[in-house]
Amino acid sequence: MSRALLTDRDGVVEYLERAQLSATLADTLELIAVREVTAGNMNRVFIAEGPLGSLALKQAPPFINVIGESAPMDPSRIGAEARAYRQLARLAPDTVPAIAHLDLDEFVMVMEDLSELTVLRDGLVDQIAARLAGGTTAEIDCGAVGTVVGRFIGELTRATSEASLGGIAFEKLTRESSNPDLCALTIKYVFGEPYRDVANNHWVPELDDRVRRLWGDEAVAAAVQTVTEVFAGSAQGLIHGDLHTGSVMLRIPNEGHDLDVKVFDPEFSFVGPIGMDLGLFWANMRIAAIAAAAAGQSDLAAMRDSAVDTSRAAFRAVWQDDTSSNFLDQVDREAWAFAGAEMIRRVIGVARAADLEMLPAVQRAAASVAVFDEARSFLLDPSTGTVSRI
Ligand code: SR1
Ligand code: MG
């Protein structure tokens, strides 16, 4: 990296000036305000705003941001993300933010400012927090969000499948979308570390016995091995690769606006198993539902669960004329196995679920145990997935 990392307002404004983007925000630099909105694990994000407009800047540091310099990571991953955005913009332009600028010297991507929208996970967390504090927040129509996400996954994977593209174009896409560094990260943090005694892991004390048993559980180890092989060996279509509720944004409908759903952060994208994006989304909606149930908010829990059904239905609606029901059932089973791995890592591994972390201790413990037990059952028998039709 040829310059220092962006850390403050002046650095961001100076960057925008050098990149000849500051004039889109303000006539004079003094009028540009900057705030850091970093929320994910990998990168840093800033919003720069002036009287003429606003932009989001994302910079990949040469390490995993949430861990720090002890976890070095090639910052050119931002190029993989930009490449994925280009593919998604071609295939599903309404569901991704527009990219304004890519800089592979300083590993910065400048993009449409979506900060008026709410990150789905934040919205789900706020709902519980507000109710626990005796207040209310806007309703999130999770069923409608699930429909958009399921259609997104369906359209993306169908349009990029070998059957749609033909062998030569499919091979080219697979090659161009190859993302070995980020796939290695998934293998390490999703399928690896939670199943070993490593320093990054932590969990609530109520999970102690279960976690120690998990590390010696041969049936679980075999199931995780299978799901890892599916992850690494099933090139079926382009996937987002990290489609949890922190990768979805929405504008809650109000006067003048319909529900608007965007999928972002596709840096883990590659040509992989179709069931993975579904499974990660289902896992995180189940975590959100379990958190709501533990907080005594069963209406919210049911609303959150509806996203699992609607996303599955929307996904199937896209694919059903082009494939067999056997294939779709196999996608379901793989999706639930991915869901199991994702849920386990959110209660043991380094990447946490704010849905659980924000709960008061007693409810957090109950929810974490419920997530763990359900996850283990999805891993061992994916047909236990909560969609009754499987
Ligand atoms: C060390 S954190 C790694 C995780 O961050 C990303 O958000 C992905 O979920 C990845 O698994
Ligand atoms: Mg992310």
Write the layout of secondary structure elements.
Layout (H helix, E strand, L loop, with lengths): L8 H10 L14 E4 L7 E7 L2 E7 L3 E2 L3 E5 L4 H15 L7 E5 L4 E5 L5 E2 H13 L9 H18 L2 H4 L1 H10 L3 H10 L18 H8 L2 H16 L3 E3 L8 E4 L8 E4 L6 E3 L2 H20 L3 H22 L5 H24 L5 H4 L3 H20 L10
Antiparallel strand pairs: 1-2, 2-3, 3-7, 4-5, 6-7, 8-10, 9-12, 10-11
Helix pairs in contact: 4-11, 9-12, 10-11, 10-12, 10-14, 12-14
Bound molecules: 5-S-methyl-5-thio-alpha-D-ribofuranose and magnesium ion.
Give the ordered list of helices and strands: HEEEEEHEEEHHHHHHHEEEEHHHHH
Please, how many helices? 14
What would you report as the Rg, rounded to the nearest angstrom? 21 Å
Global morphology: globular
Fourth-tier CATH superfamily name of the largest domain: Aminoglycoside phosphotransferase (APH), C-terminal lobe
Strand numbers in spatial order across the main sheet: 1-2-3-7-6
Fraction of residues in β-strands: 5-15%
